[in-house]
Amino acid sequence: MKSLIKNTLAIITFSLVTTSIAFAEEMTAKTTVESLNNTWNKAFNNSDASSLASLYAENAVLSPGNGKVLTGRAEIQNLFKSFFEAGLKNHQLEIVTVDGDDETLYQVAKWSASGAEKDGVTVTYSGITTSVFKKDGNGKWVARTHIWNAGN
Questions:
Q1: pLDDT on residue 124
Q2: What is the 3-state secondary structure (H, E, C) of 32-77?
């Protein structure tokens, strides 16, 4: 009977510890992605295409929902520069789900941004985005892939 109680307590303890570790890893992933999103939104909302491009890997792949695929920071920077010239601003991200480990993170998020005002009306754009982040050679998290769609 003592052996059964000891084994049961050991199993319960193991379960609690592994659940706690998994929860802590999920919270760390979410906290890291929230920080990455805040940095991304700040660069976007300051119309800083160069800073935005620096948040991507040198050979990152981005698909802006129009069927095209952009590769590398230069193409990504040019895309965002065109967005700012068109008056896009007030970008926001709301995480739907996030997961990963100490080398790779991913998120699915809702995004929204305001367009240029026309005839007193501000257009709002929104959709879903998916990003995969990896650590670069210096240990900095950078977007490796970024894809989004637009719902309107």
A1: 93
A2: HHHHHHHHHHHHHHCCCHHHHHCCEEEEEEEECCCCCCEECHHHHH
3-state SS assignment for residue 110: strand
Q: Are strands 104-118 and 121-135 parallel, antiparallel or unpaired?
A: antiparallel
pLDDT digits over 108-129, tens only? 999 999 998 888 888 999 999 9
Provide the 3-class DSSP secondary structure of residue 22: helix
pLDDT in tens, 84-105: 999 999 999 999 999 999 999 9
* Structural contact between residues 95 and 30, judged by C-beta atoms closer than 8 angstroms: yes
DSSP 120: T
Q: What backbone torsions phi and psi does residue 65 show, to the nearest 5 degrees?
A: 80, 10
Mean pLDDT of 132-145: 96
Q: What is the pTM of this model?
A: 0.81
Cα distance between residue 98 and residue 25, in whole Å = 11
The residue among 100, 102, 94, 91 whose CA lies nearest residue 132 is 100
The pair of three-digit structure tokens given for residue 82, joined into one six-digit string: 């065109």
CA–CA gap between residue 105 and residue 97 (Å, rounded):
11
